[in-house]
Hints:
The structure is a homodimer.
Chain A: E1 11-15, H1 21-30, E2 34-38, H2 42-50, E3 54-55, H3 59-63, E4 68-71, H4 76-84, E5 98-101, H5 107-119, E6 123-126, E7 129-130, H6 133-138, E8 141-146, H7 149-162, E9 163-170, H8 174-202, H9 207-214, H10 222-226, H11 249-265, H12 271-285, H13 297-300
Parallel strand pairs in A: 1-2, 1-4, 2-3, 4-5, 5-6, 8-9
Antiparallel strand pairs in A: 7-8
Helix pairs in contact in A: 8-11, 8-12, 11-12
Amino acid sequence: MPETPVMPETAVAFIGLGTMGRPMAERLLAAGYRLTVHDRLPEAVKDLVAAGAAPAASAREAATGAEVAITMLPNGPHVREALTGPDGALAALRPGSVLIDMSTIDPPTAQELARTASDQGVRMLDAPVSGSSAGAADGTLTVMVGGDAGTLAEVRPLLDELGGRIVHCGGNGAGVSVKLANQIIAGTSMVAVAESYALARRLGVDPRLLFDVVSASSGDCWSLRTRPPVPGVLPSSPAEHDFRPGFKGALMCKDLDLALATAAAHAVDLPVTLRARELYARMSEEGLGERDFSAVFTLLATED
Amino acid sequence: MPETPVMPETAVAFIGLGTMGRPMAERLLAAGYRLTVHDRLPEAVKDLVAAGAAPAASAREAATGAEVAITMLPNGPHVREALTGPDGALAALRPGSVLIDMSTIDPPTAQELARTASDQGVRMLDAPVSGSSAGAADGTLTVMVGGDAGTLAEVRPLLDELGGRIVHCGGNGAGVSVKLANQIIAGTSMVAVAESYALARRLGVDPRLLFDVVSASSGDCWSLRTRPPVPGVLPSSPAEHDFRPGFKGALMCKDLDLALATAAAHAVDLPVTLRARELYARMSEEGLGERDFSAVFTLLATED
């Protein structure tokens, strides 16, 4: 049982090599961790193997012999399957190993999976991240951790390779709770920025001037600072590149769905988040789900 | 006609001595401007007279002999009455004088009043502000100016006493257009912060931790940074003092009403702003309209 902090050379299973998982796995490889990787898409595995990882045909195979297993998957059902399905990682993980789910899933599922893991001596953390794929590549993500503090201390050196800020949020489920609370604000404020730009454009306001004034006023927010939704304002904005993500609209829709379902289960009303979520759902309906979530602007913009 | 910048000693009419107007007028007095002041409430006038201003029984009387007239009133009808009503300022202002409306009103009314003023040789600017009453007292407001650039240059020394940032936004109406675009984001993101806190509280998340994590993540926004809606997080937050404003919920409701009416007139749909506006309207219905707009949280919070 690894009671001292994990160090490079540790055997790590990494399951889920998508937009976020791939650069994260690459950072761990570069830091000297021994990675065995799995993804549903063989292509994704192949790329990591070229970078030095060992391939695995299943989550179970990846977890065999691992001291730490990391999952970075789209949603709760994927995580459940990867952990407890027929070829799931939990069947292979030894007692004392640590399982870190870095996906954004709902708090009840995170808590239930932690109990299941605990029943066989595996310690689980929920550790979703905030930040873009660029942040994943730079290792500047914020990581919100739920679970035992001592377990976090053991794997902190590994998480430090991935994130610039590792925050212990409380017990199991607290990491994803904080993440969903963050997404409520990030997703809704992006729609507010889009509505602001839609009106300002019709009123003939210069979009660059609007950015300069509002980002220094009470309308300032991360969504505006990183994603003014029209070209010619900020070179790094997805709007400059036909809304190439960044963070996909479909994922923001999924995160707000999780927040709304969690709120409903606790009899909390989120009327504005609900309305924002409807717009992100419309992005997918109109074929924009794979675009950056700031492309929600295109649903609002009228012809000039 | 004052073609050189206005300087202290200039005769200024100041109309509207409310939460924002009063500290602004006090700053101009302290800077040496000769103020004649008017407000519907005699008490408000009396306080300014004690600070060195001359009293006026009407906007017209205040404007008599003034080179610059400033209005700081709740909304468009108030400004129209103060300027073009039977005792309005425009009847007294001489050709060449400058009229600065610092209220937040709708762009069409701002443009129409500027034309009316122009017809009698008075040059008008719309110059709404962003910032709290504390910002008005400190002279750190952002002032968004619509109108002629040369006219702005003339009155800039006076505006510099009131604001830390004076931004020329374009022609008449551009100042209030930018202000409304800002309010869409400020008002909606505050509701998002309130919804985030309502959910996080039910999930048992520590409110201070939530503030620390989200304000350093993609949920960061001015509404969160200045107004976490529960006590024990930020000493300067209105939530620490039973939501004493700050910026009143009734005024945010009014600003979003203006934004929505302006959007409707231009066939722009603002679905999330509309939903946020409904919550601010409910604040007034439930007797919370005079509280800070962050008290919108109390409409969402369920019992623990």
